[in-house]
Amino acid sequence: MTAEPFKVPVNEAEAAWVRERVASYRFFEEPAESGWSHGANRDYMERLRTYWLDSYDWPAAVANLNRLPHVRVEVEPGFCLHAVHRRSSRADARPLLIAHGWPGSVLEFDAIVERLAEPESKDLPAFHVVAPSLPGYAWSDRPSGMWGPRRVAGLYDALMPALGYDRYVYQGGDWGCVIGGWLGLDSTRLDGLHLSGFGLRPANMSPETPEDVKWLQKAVAVRDRETGYLQLQGTKPQSLGFAMMDSPMGVAAWFCEKFVGWSDTEGKVTDPPYAMDWLLTNIMIYLTTRSFATATWIYRGMFIEGGFAIPEGRRVEVPTGVAAFPFDLLAFPARRIVERGYNVVHWTDMPRGGHFASLEEPELFLADVRKFAGAL
Length: 376
Known about the structure:
Elements: E1 3-6, H1 12-23, H2 42-54, H3 58-65, E2 70-76, E3 79-86, E4 94-99, H4 113-117, E5 127-132, H5 149-162, E6 168-172, H6 175-186, E7 190-195, H7 210-226, H8 228-235, H9 237-244, H10 248-261, H11 276-288, H12 292-305, E8 316-324, H13 335-338, E9 342-349, H14 357-360, H15 362-375
Parallel strand pairs: 4-5, 4-6, 6-7, 7-8, 8-9
Antiparallel strand pairs: 1-2, 2-3, 3-5
């Protein structure tokens, strides 16, 4: 297995095609005073389009991405993963694999990678940070089929020794927490598992108390309101791909709606709580690599593999830390339910925050990862 240095390309031809399609987009009607209640909001999307055409600078965004060291690593014959690989200067640094999900990218960790590698104080733990792009995402190779999260976990586990790390700590949210669960079950290299979402779940999720029932009712309500995308991408993703691969504005709307609905907006449905530059760079990563369609394959792959459940009779025995953000799409139930499937040694109930923890609450996120890993 080999690792080669990599620079993120501007990909001028694809960027020009994107600009042309955004410029020619035709808007359509929406119900009066709909806001974000029926999906992407027209007023915001019009403002985003204007900013995209008049102010956004993709080459500058690429230059910012390239300030971090990138690699492409052959993790099995003929298949390469892209990753940010930021080694620490500290002799006591330990390897940390930090995993993004959908509709995100390694950009989710842009503001924290260097702080993890070179912390502000010698009293804080330091890490050799490895942040891979999922198969079929960004600059990682395309899968040969619809690989699910267990298959991806095997690739991630092969990535670390290819970079020189025999043991490592793992952090994941969204797809990262599902992949993390499989790593906890299958890997022999894992020292610790830190989860910021409730992904792979115990086979027994039966409620025992009124609080358990309340959590279940809330989870069902969130599922009914926010996970239509999961049904589409987990059943017939190729049909959706035909529309989205030809429409940059469609991809932008599909993503922005998630960044609204899955974030902690203090009970108010408002515009995405992230800068347009950040959102557009994340969107452009998908567009310039033509990876919207292949990025959805993991959903179908998960259902082919068998879904979200830990196999009956299995339990993750790796020391597990939980950062429970209250407005996460994959919010945690009571600790004792999680402990049916995981060896939980660390638990933090966060005061605020949603699904995109490292973006929304970087200080809370960093502090919890450091506290968990430092105590291992």
